[in-house]
Amino acid sequence: MSNIENPILKNIKIDPELDKALNKALEYLKNNKNPFGGYPKLVRDNIPKIILDNNPAGTTIKYRKLDDVEYKNALKNKLCEEVLEYTESDDFKELADILEVICALAKTHGETEITLGNARNYKAFTNGKFEDRIYLEEVVIGDKYENPKEKLQESED
Fold first, then answer.
1. Number of other residues whose CB lies within 10 A of the CB of residue 101
2. Which of 2, 1, 4 minimizes the C-alpha distance to 88?
3. Residue ranges per domain, the chain?
């Protein structure tokens, strides 16, 4: 069972492979200087000014502007950071941070918040939303249990 202490997930059976990957990621985060705590990391545009305004005179900061590839990678890391913060805190305001990062990522794809919203609406129309709280536990087709990993391996051949 997962080392993740999250009351929302406590009654959900997690695939052992996913559980192993999540624990490996969490262990990495705990053992490395920053992927989410401390510096260097991507911050919102006003953070350097806020740091200087809220600390004693003589406080200095060092930052740089990222190139396109670094920026996209930093946004992906930031998305993981924000999702982790939300899952640990269950604080509604953390969702705003996640949404901000998602909108910035959309821009790296040459898209806008409007086209992102359109894609979201299209997926909601074709696949539905998550309002009905459907938690799929198993699919049996005829007498064969469907294993998504087997299907993935078949499609790669």
1. 22
2. 4
3. 33-131
**Quick one: which H or E segment has residue 144?**
strand 144-145
Give the dihedral sign, CA 45/50/53/59. Answer: negative
Q: Looking at residue 3, what DSSP letter applies?
A: S
pLDDT recorded at residue 145: 63
| pLDDT, tens only, 10-60 | 555 666 776 676 666 666 655 554 544 577 899 999 999 999 999 889 989
Report the chain's terminal Cα–Cα distance, integer Å: 32
pLDDT in tens, 128-137: 999 999 988 8
Give the Cβ contact number of residue 82 at 10 Å. 20
- What does residue 31 show for φ and ψ, rounded to 5 degrees? -95, -5
Centroid of chain to Cα 73:
12
Coil, helix or strand at residue 141: strand
- Helix or strand (DSSP H, E) at 77: helix 68-89
Predicted pLDDT at 72? 95
Give the SS3 label for residue 115. Answer: helix
> Per the structure block, which two tokens stand in for 125?
């129309």
Angle at 152 between CA 27 and CA 23, to 5 degrees: 10
